[in-house]
Automatic annotation (TrEMBL):
Keyword annotations from UniProtKB, A to Z: Membrane, Transmembrane, Transmembrane helix
Keyword Zinc-finger: no
Organism: Halalkalibacter akibai (strain ATCC 43226 / DSM 21942 / CIP 109018 / JCM 9157 / 1139) (Bacillus akibai)
Keyword Repeat: no
InterPro entries cross-referenced by the UniProt entry: YczE/YyaS-like
A Pfam family assignment: DUF6198
Transmembrane segment boundaries: 27-45, 52-73, 85-105
Record-given protein name: YitT family protein
Length: 186
């Protein structure tokens, strides 16, 4: 939704779209390639082995992005600034909400979020600060490759971290409430 809104993709998406525009590879392919690079970078930053099972996550995401962009929404264009902003904002909330849920599983997190956690631990900052830093790094890279940057990019850059920070503890509380209840009875 954030790509299709047409008012600037998120920094990582802008990077992937920009790279897809100047190479023969698709946006989904670049999600996979960048993900592989981030797996290596995350291992270096955390001084640990690469999280190889994250490959499964990025391959799945890469192919799903291509499926949605190429097959499902191939010719979909939104018109009118208000509709574009609405689609973008809904997309941002869905991404933050979804990320806060899937991060609870602590299994095969996408390399972008692994990068966020690595920076959080390395820099000793809050999750939203680390996420904003990773988004700014991607934004600079997207600018270099000529990705679709606009007001939407800035909104995603500065809203996604705080929204994940907002949703994360609430989802953790909801997801783990049953575990806490079971422990009381054991």
């Amino acid at each position: 939704m954030t790509i299709l809104a047409g008012i600037g993709a998120g920094p990582w998406d802008a990077l992937n779209v920009g790279l897809a525009m100047i190479t023969p590879f698709s946006v989904g392919n670049w999600v996979i390639f960048i993900g592989m690079l981030l797996i290596i970078l995350n291992a270096l930053l955390t001084r640990s082995k690469p999280v190889i099972h994250s490959l499964l996550t990025i391959v799945l995401i890469g192919y799903l992005i291509d499926f949605w962009l190429i097959i499902v929404f191939n010719d979909l264009l939104f018109s009118g600034l208000m509709l574009k902003v609405f689609v973008l904002l809904v997309g941002i909330v869905i991404i933050a909400f979804g990320a806060s849920i899937y991060l609870q599983a602590e299994f095969a997190i996408i390399p972008i979020d692994g990068f966020m956690f690595a920076l959080r631990d390395l820099l000793k900052v809050k999750l939203m600060v680390a996420k904003t830093i990773t988004e700014l790094i991607a934004l600079v890279a997207a600018l270099i490759v000529g990705g679709p940057i606009g007001i939407g990019t800035l909104l995603i850059t500065f809203l996604i971290g705080p929204l994940i920070q907002f949703f994360f503890p609430r989802m953790k509380k909801r997801i783990h409430w049953k575990e806490a209840g079971e422990k009381e009875f054991l």
